[in-house]
Amino acid sequence: MRFNKYIWDLYKHSANGQENINKWTILNDFPDKEYCRESKPTIIDELRKNNLENYICDIKVNWYKMLKDYFINHDFNRDDVRDIYEKWVKEGISVNDVKVIGENKCKNWTIDVSFFSQILFASYPDYFFPYILNCEFEQFKKICNEFSIPIPEVPNKNNWEKRAMFYIDICEALFEFRKMNKFTPGELCAFFYDFAPTLVNELEDSEMPNPSKAWFVGGSKYDFNFLDNATFDSKDRWQCNVDARKGDIIVMYCVTPRSYIHSIWRACGDGFADPFFQYYSVVQISNPIKLDFPINQKDLINNTIWSKNPLIRKNLQGVNGYPIKHKEYLELLSMMKEKGQDVDILPTIKPTNKFEGDELFNERDVEIKLIEPFLLSLKYKPSDWIRQMPVKMGRGERNYPDYCFNANPQRGNENATMILESKYEIKTQKELKEAYFQAKSYALRLRSDKFIVASREGIWIFLSQNSVFKFENNYHRNWLEIEDPDVFYVVRKMIGK
Predict the structure, then answer these.
(1) Residues 6+ positions from 457 with CB-CB distance below 8 Å
(2) Strand boundaries in 200-334, DSSP class E
(3) Is residue 311 part of a domain?
(4) Same domain assignment for residues 314 and 196
(5) Contact between 27 and 122 (Cβ < 8 Å)
(6) CA–CA gap between residue 445 and residue 407 (Å, rounded)
(7) What is the DSSP string of 61-84?
(8) Which of 22, 36, 271, 443 could potentially form a cystine with 242 if both were Cys, beta carbons 3.0 to 4.6 Å apart?
(9) What is the pLDDT of residues 391-437, one digit of tens each?
(10) What contacts 344, CB < 8 A, 6 or more positions away?
């Protein structure tokens, strides 16, 4: 989606637009009543000793105002922002000899990004963005993708320094976007927190797909009240696994002192990595069904199938985002039924292809039993494709795309209208991305305007948009879904002969 100035101007001059822009137009101050935080008596005493009484309100401290006063004493220009921020992250911050933030507290700068970014925005709105999206990085990323705002890949989970500096990466990308579109800082905030989400959410598919996998997540004593009072419409963000997919089954296990499976939820969005979330991996869950007869830890330990599971042997340590095998989930349902639970109201995992009961031993089995019959159903003939066509990709490098359609194999003039890259299985997001980049490189080299990644789990279709292939804009269906006439019609329109 390209930025449409006409639509933006309509929003900008509307009553709602003006209200949202004004809400973000430079935060001049942080009033004590709203922004003070309760602090230990020893900290308050230390602040008084160092002439910082102005920031004390009874037993609370206005850290927002204190840090803002500290930040605005630094003269910024565009070239200094990253260096100064990095210095604060590494060396910490002292106000009147009080160490407000210690050295190398990268983790604090990361998970408290909402706190720091609001103060930095209030101090220097030209250079900083108030990032207040708690466990909603996927929403921010969708907006950036839709409006072609380039942000780098999310840093690895354990690299806290890069995760802390990722905030500056975002600020730099949004600075360029703001200047290009002549936004004020307040307009940029209104764009990200009101205007763009409305447009992006309209493009979302609200239909809940069939579950393809089940995952454990854990609830602590701090979550029990929410879980016990959750209704079918309840939603929340939960630590899970980046490979969870919309529709997947989420098994909620309450840790000690309860130690039992409390409810069955569904993933209402794909799992994602959030650089600013302490535990990194997040998924949105909804549609809970509370169990009338919970399965406790002893039930799992004494079960012949579950007793062999490594997670059970570890006393369910590391439960969040732990994958559950198909046969293990079926066993859970069986255990619940024996206790008297109505399992007909619980979601089940359906096979993704008609050969689930048979063995698909390797990639060629997937091609012969799944891919090639599928291509024939799209009216292609074997003469329409070339398997393993040699393609020179670089100096001395020769590659072999699995299927090239309407191809010209003449050396130096190789081209194809469509590429299909086959894999035996694609279990994770990482494996899908690897296959995507491989197939994309072939498609670009052969000037194809579409390509397909296929495995035993189904197909992913990628279409060129303005000569660009975007990973997020793929159309995925499993093999059984493709047999549905309505789904097949959509697929045939996209990639049929």
Answers:
(1) 212, 352, 425, 426, 427, 478
(2) 214-219, 235-239, 249-254, 260-267, 272-273, 281-296, 322-324
(3) yes
(4) no
(5) yes
(6) 12
(7) E-HHHHHHHHHTTSPP-TTTHHHH
(8) 271
(9) 887 665 678 899 999 999 888 788 999 999 999 988 778 889 999 99
(10) none
Q: What is the pLDDT of residue 429?
A: 80
Residue 379, token pair as written in the block? 């009216």
pTM (global) more than 0.90: no
> What is the percent of the chain with per-residue pLDDT over 90, rounded to a whole number?
69
Interatomic CA distance for residues 416 and 451, integer angstroms: 10
Position of tokens 């927190």? Answer: 193
Both 59 and 193 in one domain: the answer is yes
Query: In terms of domains, do 224 and 291 share one?
Result: yes
Q: What is the CATH number of the domain that holds 307?
A: 3.10.590.10
- How far apart (Å, rounded) are the C-alpha atoms in residues 215 and 319? 9
How confident is the model over 331-342, as a mean pLDDT? 96
Burial bucket for residue 92 (CB in 10 Å: 0-12, 13-18, 19+) = middle
Residues 218 and 198 in one domain: no
354 located within any domain:
no
Q: What is the mean pLDDT of the chain?
A: 91
Q: Are 164 and 90 in contact (CB under 8 A)?
A: no
Residues 328 and 375 in one domain: no
- Position 162 confidence tier, pLDDT thresholds 50, 70, 90: very high
Mean pLDDT calculated for residue range 95-109: 91
Same domain, yes or no, for 240 and 286? yes
Beta strands in 240-396, from DSSP E residues, in sequence order: 249-254, 260-267, 272-273, 281-296, 322-324, 385-387, 391-394
Q: Provide the token pair at 325.
A: 């095998």
Predicted local confidence at residue 356, as pLDDT: 56
pLDDT digits (tens, 9 = 90+) for 2-38: 678 889 999 999 999 999 999 887 666 788 888 888 8
Distance CA 109, CA 90 (A): 10
The residue among 262, 218, 214, 222 whose CA lies nearest residue 238 is 218
What are the distances in angstroms from CA 114 to CA 93, 150, 271? 17, 21, 22
Q: Which domain holds residue 16?
A: 5-202
Q: Do 42 and 123 reside in the same domain of the chain?
A: yes
Answer whether residue 418 is part of any domain: yes
Q: Which long-range contacts (CB under 8 A, 24 or more apart) does 315-319 make?
A: 316/216, 316/218, 316/253, 316/255, 316/259, 319/216, 319/217, 319/218, 319/253, 319/255
Residue 166 maps to a domain:
yes
Longest dimension (CA), the chain: 85
CA dist 351 → 166, 210, 479, 495 (Å): 40, 10, 9, 24
Domain end residue (candidates: 202, 225, 244): 202
Q: Could you give phi then psi for residue 27, rounded to 5 degrees? A: -70, 105
Q: Are residues 191 and 218 in the same domain?
A: no
**How many domains, the chain?**
3
pLDDT recorded at residue 29? 76
